[in-house]
Amino acid sequence: MRTLEYLRELPEVFWPPCVVALCLVPLCSVLSVIVCLKRLAFIGQGISHAGFGGIGVAAVLGLVGTGLTASQTVAQFAVVVGFCAASAVVVGVLSGRGRPGGGAGTGGPAGGADTAIGIVLVASMALGAVLVHVSSSNFAWESFLFGYLLGKGWADVWVALSASAGVLGALWWARRPLLFWAFDEPSAEAFGVRARGVRVGLMILLALATVTTMKLAGVVMASALLVLPGATALLMSARLGAVMWASVGVALVGVVGGLVLSFEANWPPGPAIVTVLTVEYLAARVVSGVRGGA
């Protein structure tokens, strides 16, 4: 098998991307369940494209181009994450201005999450274009927004590990109000859960997960990992614990299977992983339909 051959003979080239991809599994798969429950499937696309606005801010601050020091690279990443987090907060606030008790994706005609995501997406990209033009910086901004999994090093592994630990720690700390809100927002508010605070906190975590995955593996994989594992898991069970573990399992199979497919068929790793995740979803859909018709 090419996979074993690559990992054995070129460990410094192929092991770091594999470990990075595995670190992204818990980062995105747990959030994926909440994303699907709250109908935020397009949030990954919105936040990832908002990253262009963050790149514009970084360009104005002189944090783009070749020859950046390690501290400048970290500062650039922090600026983009901060901008995307702010954009996500705006989405959370706007999507919460619908009818009382409405979840994201509900609300009035101008208050749904899809509308908020669209507004923030185009506004952020326009701002980014203006700032990049004003800064007169000549740099490959697409290298940040559209990361490529292969070519990643051990430093990227630490980035993925840190982001995963931070997001999972925050989710564990806020698990009770967050899950109550995700499953039944009106009841959660009636029992004293601060829905807007939970929504804003979730958006910040989604921003961190999206930007990290986008930077390390690309926009397509970021969007896929935030939607497909949760959507597949919700077809497999109605029990919360089982759904969470199933989402992690689906993402793990998708990443491992996609990497193997990438090595064996010489495919780009991101699309290969998304292909396996899509096949898993379709299989779960078929099985769910058969069970429902039985």
Properties at a glance:
294 residues; ABC transporter involved in vitamin B12 uptake, BtuC; 14 helices; globular
Provide a concise account of the structure shown.
The chain contains 14 helices and no strands. The radius of gyration is 19 Å and the shape is globular.
Percent of residues in helices: over 70%
Work out the number of β strands: 0
Shape: globular
Over the alpha carbons, how many angstroms does the gyration radius reach?
A: 19 Å
Helix and strand run? HHHHHHHHHHHHHH
Low-confidence stretches are: 98-109
Please, how many helices? 14
Structural domain tally: 1
Distance between the termini: 41 Å
CATH class: Mainly Alpha
Largest sheet: none
Strand content: under 5%
From the 3D structure, determine the CATH topology. Answer: ABC transporter involved in vitamin B12 uptake, BtuC
Give the integer mean of the pLDDT values: 86
Q: Structural class of the secondary structure composition?
A: mainly alpha
How is the topology of this model organized?
Elements: H1 2-9, H2 11-37, H3 43-60, H4 70-95, H5 113-135, H6 142-145, H7 154-173, H8 175-183, H9 185-190, H10 195-217, H11 219-225, H12 228-236, H13 240-265, H14 269-293
Helix pairs in contact: 1-2, 2-7, 2-10, 2-12, 2-13, 3-4, 3-5, 3-10, 3-11, 4-5, 4-10, 7-10, 10-11, 11-14, 12-13, 12-14, 13-14
Structure notes:
The protein is mainly α and about 290 residues long. It has one domain: ABC transporter involved in vitamin B12 uptake, BtuC, CATH 1.10.3470. The protein is about 80% helix and about 0% strand. The chain is built from 14 helices and no strands. The protein is globular.
